[in-house]
Amino acid sequence: MNMKKVAVLGAGTMGVQIAAHLANASIPCLLFDLPGQAIASLERLKKIDPAPLFDPGLVSLIEPLEFGPQFARLKEADWIVEAIIENLDAKRELLKNILPHIRLDALVTSNTSGIPLSSIAAEMPADFKERWFGTHFFNPPRYLKLLELIPTNETDRGRLRAFADFGERMLGKGIVYAKDTPNFISNRLATFGGMHTLRLMEEDGYTIEEVDALTGPVLGHPKTATFRLFDLVGIDVFGMVAKNLYHNVPQDEQREMFRMPAVLEKLLERKLLGAKTGQGFYKKEGKDIFVLDLQTMEYRPQKKAVYPAVEMLKPLENPLERIAGLVRSKERAGNLVWKTLSAFLAYAANRIPEISDDIMNIDNSMKWGFGWSHGPFEAWDAIGVAASVKRMKEEGKSFPAWMNDLLQQASPSFYRIEKGVKQYWDIGSGSYRPIPRAEGFMILEDQKRERGVLKKNSGASVIDIGDGVLCLEFHSKVNAIGADTIQMARAAVDLLDKGYEGLVIANQGEQFSAGANLMLVLLEAQEGNWDDLNLVIRMFQQMTMSFRYSSRPVVAAPFGLALGGGCEICLGSDAVHSAAEVYTGLVEVGAGLIPAGGGTKEMLARQMAKVPAGADPLPFLRKAFETIALAKVSRSVLEARKHGYFEESDTFSMNNDRLVQDAKRVVLGLSQSYRRPQPRKDILLSGRAGYAYLQAGIYLTKEAGFISEYDAKLGEKVAWILTGGDLSEPTRVDEQFVLDMEREAFLSLLGERKTQERIQHILKTGKPLRN
Length: 771
Hints:
This protein is α/β, with parallel strands linked by helices. It contains 31 helices and 25 strands. It folds into four domains: about 5-175, NAD(P)-binding Rossmann-like Domain (Rossmann fold); about 185-375, N-(1-d-carboxylethyl)-l-norvaline Dehydrogenase, domain 2, CATH 1.10.1040.50; about 440-585 and about 635-675, 2-enoyl-CoA Hydratase, Chain A, domain 1, CATH 3.90.226.10; about 610-630 and about 680-770, no CATH class.
């Protein structure tokens, strides 16, 4: 499906951000609203944080237009998405008004979050209904992966499948097929979960802090947990959704759960609507955050919730293991987790096939729409299906008939691995079936089950991903890089000489790599093991150099965080095929260090290579210096190019699920005409003149109070490496010369007390220290 231009009807919160994400995909967009509204929304778009656009310049792809007089422009659109107010009559009227102006081959969809699609288009002609379905984006569209597709009985299934492929490839979305039922999948389930938690909190006497401490990261859910999420969504919005469900699901066995509880009524009466009014369940005053006392309905200081069971399970990295431990606990924490989870699981099971035909769409909807690390049926497997169902039945919960076949299996579970293939329980056939994989999706765990692992240690693995391509997969905590990772990298590069076509550096963890293992570096420094540190840093440099000068092409596939050493791995590769959402940068200055894995050398070499013949090199030198000294981090793949971390020729995938397969294609393309590069011997160092130029800028910045004394010292270290320090005149040197300077500067800084304080602070808080 080729979308050359899209029209968005409605420039409100969702409409303008849908337009922004279309611009991220390089698709021109017509944004319609009342006179002046579209222009005003585009101005507000620039101030939203986190940014809806990969790059501010992409706003030029969005053209603001007016409802009515400019509807003739709709003939340009291949797809028209309606995103106006959630009012049935208003939506019907809009469709009537645009009908004369749209092409017969254009798709028309609605971003409604709850109004039945069939009722919106009830009065439209038959050929229109074939091109009509729901496209429910989740806010913010750039960052939340879920896109619910809701067909009606009249929707052409071929067009729906083609659009799903477009949504996955071009918009980077995870597609979930929902039925045309009230609030579809995610909002139906989430609203039940929220309302049940509210009532349980009142019945069992939990405080807001106690609930949020148990319904957030400890369960693999976002930090917003329950009540911060209410505030973020808007208590009025949540109340409206619940009210809508109560009136529209008369056959739901849990319908009474959607009746408005007293606490929400009180908040709505006082217009305490959450983030939009500055106060809801929480209230922020300056730097302090207060919480609502449900007994007095007054705000009070927060009290940290302490649960022994949670503290005992914290060391478990897998949230599913923590959940399994909590539901077995007889303590206060276990009581809340079991009651909320068991009710949610039973409700989700009873919604099949009402809202979805299978468990996968439900699991994916909660993971992609609400940022859960796992879906409800995956959690059910973790706590044990047979035992938990027995316990729930004893408590009076009922289950759908389709679960009877599942429970008769020898080891009932919703998912299983059979002969290396992951399968799910298909309720239609009453049997296990392989999980379908879209073309272009590669799951590394599947590759390992199919082909085995060539080499492995605690930090990384080398696996064969087919067609002669190897993959170096990191799997340490936050994929931090240590000696074990370096050892596997060396093994991977050595294997390239055995007839392989190339190497992809990739993984499918939460982040690409948070950089070097700072804890081990700090411990070695405190022990005074300078020779060992010197050796490890040299090995790191040799690793990044080996990627660039290996016998076959090496492509890095970063996503999420690719910081410090993770960024240097990208800089050292022949090419980068990145995720669109990548946060990369040389951040070592924040830890009181400088990039010493080839990062400083590479930024210098890249900038100096851009200097036109006879031009002044100092502006290019300054660019490299500022990028490193200010620890600039990209907020998208386009910013990574601007900062010089990626080349303009480097490519990216909108959908992370396609990242490894797409990177593999890049490797195979490079291998067709690959020639091993030769080490650079002509990197320009500007010497004393360049060093004095950078020093002057550091001095002025410090005197203005923008940086500390120690920041200035770090800046001077960076400047010394980038210029060659006391070289009497501009000199061209080889790469090893700069690498040696990197390593010496890194070691000297590591011996400084203030650097060690910075590292300790980062390890403790996750935030940089300015000392």
